[in-house]
Design goal:
single chain, 382 residues, alpha+beta, 16 strands, transmembrane, LytR family transcriptional regulator
Length: 382
């Protein structure tokens, strides 16, 4: 019996080792399976994302005697805002054109709004191959000079994947800046973006009031709309018995998606250039909200956000390009961008004119050389 007991003592440690190895292999197997499933989920999400956001392919739209050099350390992104294809009244014309730049070597960021009424010569295109040109530019003038906000629409009409490339090429021609990427979002996508972040927070020193533009579109259950029974004063919308106004009070406000859209579209009581400043304000607020809420550091939230926006966005960025830009935003979240809105003014680079009955903005010197120098000054300022 003593001999058997000694044998049992020797066998027990051996059994424990075998059991430990088996358990270890099983645990390792489970970990590998879980990891494989995670990789599969990411691949599926990437596939769904690639089929959700429309990625445009490169199309050749180039000026014959003009080119710009790509900056090695700088990333330049063109953001466009449109009403949307479903809007028959120029839904592909850009209401918003903002060139955002970030220099990795100097850690400087800039945001420049380009006026939609800039009158600029477009690249040479085979107009007979284009369809569904915007009514505002039919027929395309022989000198190919058109308002810059039509660039995306013209590019799309000549090639289903050509909208962003045409917009990039025309903006490069005006600014002298090589545009690396572009993205366009319609009103539906913008509202969904605001909803993802639970509204957008803005702070105003003075109240913002739009009394003219939105008569008939009032939202009676929205706190940013007010009704006045008094007769409008001179210059206000003339609605007998009273009128509605879109009103954002001074102080800090959290705008819902509808209110944010009215805020960045309003211009009758102010101007296109003030509207551009409000658009920059909202973009900055969205960036801050994304960083503070941890969305950009959570891949799931990023995927969910992009999928929610869906086919309301078109871009020429690949998935890896998007990840690179998101990473830069996280690394340099404390960088405050230099902001500017290009606009005509006495002694300035741009001036307004009436050409063929239309309001347009042209370079004061007759060409774009001074405007291009100004862009370089913005990008390289100390």
């Amino acid at each position: 019996m003593k001999f058997i007991g000694e044998k049992a003592k020797n066998i027990a440690p051996l059994f424990q080792k075998v059991l430990a190895r088996v358990l270890h292999r099983r645990v390792l197997h489970v970990i590998l399976v879980v990891f494989a499933l995670m990789v599969l989920v990411v691949i599926i999400r990437l596939f769904l994302l690639a089929n959700t956001i429309i990625v445009e392919q490169t199309v050749d739209y180039e000026y014959e005697n003009f080119s710009v050099k790509e900056e090695e350390d700088r990333i330049d992104v063109l953001l466009l805002g449109i009403r949307g294809e479903s809007d028959p009244a120029g839904g592909l014309l850009a209401d918003t054109m903002i060139l955002m730049s970030f220099d990795k070597s100097t850690e400087k960021m800039s945001m420049v709004s380009i006026p939609r009424d800039l009158f600029v010569e477009f690249p040479d295109i085979q107009i007979d191959e284009c369809s569904n040109l915007p009514e505002a530019i039919i027929p395309l003038p022989e000198d190919r000079k058109v308002k810059i906000n039509a660039a995306y629409a013209v590019g799309r009409s000549c090639n289903p994947n050509g909208g962003l490339e045409m917009a990039k090429e025309v903006v490069q021609y005006v600014s002298g800046v090589h545009v690396d990427y572009a993205a366009v979002i319609n009103f539906t996508g913008f509202k969904r973006l605001i909803e993802i972040f639970g509204g957008v927070e803005i702070t105003l020193e003075q109240p913002f009031i739009e009394r003219q533009q939105w008569q008939g579109e009032e939202q009676k259950d929205n706190k940013y709309w007010r009704y006045y029974t008094a007769e409008p004063t001179e210059g206000d919308a003339n609605k007998k018995g009273g009128y509605w106004e879109f009103h954002v009070p001074a102080g800090t406000n959290v705008l819902d998606s509808e209110s944010a859209l009215y805020y960045i579209r309003s211009r009758f009581s102010s101007s296109d250039f003030d509207r551009a400043r409000r658009q920059q304000q909202v973009i900055n607020a969205l960036k801050d909200k994304a960083l503070s809420s941890g969305v950009l550091s959570n891949p799931k939230k990023v995927f969910d956000s992009l999928e929610s926006i869906g086919r309301n966005v078109r871009t020429d960025m690949s998935i890896s390009d998007m990840k690179m830009i998101l990473s830069l935003m996280k690394q340099h979240q404390l960088v405050v961008p230099t902001q500017e809105v290009l606009q005509p003014g006495e002694g300035g680079l741009l001036e307004s004119q009436i050409i063929d009955g239309a309001y347009v903005i042209v370079p004061t010197q007759g060409d774009w050389s001074a405007v291009r120098h100004h862009f370089q000054d913005i990008l390289n300022e100390e």
